[in-house]
Amino acid sequence: MPILDTPFARLELQRQPPRRDDPLQAFDAADEYLLQHLHAQGLPAQARVLVLNDAFGALACALAGHARVTSSGDSHLGWLALQDNLQRNGLAADAVAFVPASAVAEGPFDRVLIRVPKTLALLEEQLIRLHGRLAPGAQVIAAAMLKHLPRAAGDLLERYVGPLQASLAVKKARLLFATPETKPAPRSPYPSRYRLDQPPIELANHANVFCREGLDIGTRAFLPHLPRNLGDARVADLGCGNGVLAIACALANPEARLTLVDESYMAVQSAEENWRAALGARPVEIRAADGLAGQAEQSLEVVLCNPPFHQQQVVGDFIAWRMFQQARAALVPGGALWIVGNRHLGYHVKLRKLFSRVEQVAATPKFVILKATR
């Protein structure tokens, strides 16, 4: 397992979800660069440090015991990785406080360390929330690999924090230093909202929700073909996002019992708000989770899924394959996984390895809707 060797600690770190012979590591040169800079600069023992978007806990674990560390991000898998990596390295579970991105880390903070996220709307919301939560003399430092560092990230830091200075690149990583200055309290543009004609609902979307400004084309293709006449079936929306598939399914199946899960805290927050707006007090379970990993075996009749094809900046079908495996375990014999996917991904081939029958329900030039029966 790769070792992160820093001036603060020598750490054995693992990504989440774990993979046998994982070709990827839980840290990169941007983490190393940031930690080396902090050490060279000098970090006061009681400094209050906020770490944002620390994908697998590398920064927080390295600084645990050297400062008062709060970590905040939008990934439940990131939280699981943080807990696992603290334990893996003999650190107390409470050595780092964790605040999901759906909540606000109160501060005040002396140092704010930011891994620039893939979704710049998330970065913008996080920077807006820093207003009034920085201690006098606070420093805000963002880090990223050059290939994942858009110019707009620096623009956001300058707009919401203050004047910006960029470091030299080291091992294809760069640091951005924003000097806090007094600014008027900003107004957040999040959540954004859009309306659907069918079903006629309005959807709120917090900053890190996929396709925040409008319905994604895969879901649009899926909606007319959602299962009907389900009676009181137990249905899960796996990777629910803003909850639109589950809400549409619930409206078409008044007795169905719904569970919504997503690993994004902001997705779960959005789904909860949207469910209540569309369905009031109708019973539902909505949770942040590692997919259906915590779902009892053979406890569902139907799983709906619009699977992602990336984890952060890493593109691949590993997460989708894992979702299919989880769905199979959670479904009763005869239960079905309904998915939408890009034609070129060839999900029908993978699904046939897990399910007894796979049929194409519908298709568009770009997408297929598949039903895989256990």
From TrEMBL:
<dbReference type="Pfam" id="PF26049">
    <property type="entry name" value="RLMG_N"/>
</dbReference>
<dbReference type="GO" id="GO:0005737">
    <property type="term" value="C:cytoplasm"/>
</dbReference>
<keyword id="KW-0489">Methyltransferase</keyword>
<keyword id="KW-0698">rRNA processing</keyword>
<protein>
    <recommendedName>
        <fullName>Ribosomal RNA large subunit methyltransferase G</fullName>
        <ecNumber>2.1.1.174</ecNumber>
    </recommendedName>
</protein>
<dbReference type="InterPro" id="IPR046977">
    <property type="entry name" value="RsmC/RlmG"/>
</dbReference>
<dbReference type="GO" id="GO:0052916">
    <property type="term" value="F:23S rRNA (guanine(1835)-N(2))-methyltransferase activity"/>
</dbReference>
<feature type="domain" description="Methyltransferase small">
    <location>
        <begin position="202"/>
        <end position="371"/>
    </location>
</feature>
<keyword id="KW-0808">Transferase</keyword>
<feature type="domain" description="RlmG N-terminal">
    <location>
        <begin position="1"/>
        <end position="181"/>
    </location>
</feature>
<dbReference type="InterPro" id="IPR017237">
    <property type="entry name" value="RLMG"/>
</dbReference>
<comment type="similarity">
    <text>Belongs to the methyltransferase superfamily. RlmG family.</text>
</comment>
<dbReference type="InterPro" id="IPR002052">
    <property type="entry name" value="DNA_methylase_N6_adenine_CS"/>
</dbReference>
<keyword id="KW-0963">Cytoplasm</keyword>
<dbReference type="Pfam" id="PF05175">
    <property type="entry name" value="MTS"/>
</dbReference>
<dbReference type="InterPro" id="IPR058679">
    <property type="entry name" value="RlmG_N"/>
</dbReference>
<dbReference type="InterPro" id="IPR029063">
    <property type="entry name" value="SAM-dependent_MTases_sf"/>
</dbReference>
<comment type="function">
    <text>Specifically methylates the guanine in position 1835 (m2G1835) of 23S rRNA.</text>
</comment>
<dbReference type="GO" id="GO:0003676">
    <property type="term" value="F:nucleic acid binding"/>
</dbReference>
<dbReference type="InterPro" id="IPR007848">
    <property type="entry name" value="Small_mtfrase_dom"/>
</dbReference>
<keyword id="KW-0949">S-adenosyl-L-methionine</keyword>
